[in-house]
Amino acid sequence: MIETMTMDCDEAIDYVRENVKVYDTLELSYNRIFTPGEVIGIDTTEECGDKACKLMIQIASQLGTTVDVDLEDLKDDLVEVKHTPQDSKKTTIIIIERCETDL
After folding, report:
1. How is 30-96 classified by DSSP, letter by letter?
2. Of all residues in the chain, what percent carry a pLDDT higher than 90?
3. DSSP code of residue 101
4. The pTM is what?
């Protein structure tokens, strides 16, 4: 089952904080970059009052490369998030809605 939602950047990051768990599959599209893979670490702690949503993703490739992504740092470039929980067949696709002032 696929569910599609439209949100702004902050709502999408809140969705990730609340719903994405270690071992879930996450596909991020941001600033001409596509990062598909398995979440192997999540850090949402605040430092000095600054929010964070840091993910460590093992890229879905034969190389097994991992990348660290802080969604708060790249939220203005975020285009789409596709989330599939490890223990579910439900996939949620979040399309990031842009305000006219963002353009």
Report:
1. ETTEEEEEEEEEEE---BTTB---EEEEEESSTT--EEEEEHHHHGGGEEEEEEE-TT-S-EEEEEE
2. 69
3. G
4. 0.87
